Amino acid sequence: MKELIEAIVKPLVDYPEDVQVNVHEEDNRITYQLSVNKKDMGKVIGKQGRVAKAIRTVVYAAATNTQQKKAFLEIKE
After folding, report:
1. CA distance 32 to 20
2. What is the pTM of this model?
């Protein structure tokens, strides 16, 4: 899943080397924390959050097919 998030986000940003995905697992949920360069936040979020919503939709769909835990995506600077 981490590789999927990186594959989606890296082509969108100007600083792909700053893209990091951290994974935090709990009993019934997995949280993926995406951090990008401060200058790339607007590109990842998109107008009215449309890009971020699309990324989350893909991640959630992939997670329900492969994992029993609920997946969440957080975008941080």
Report:
1. 10
2. 0.87
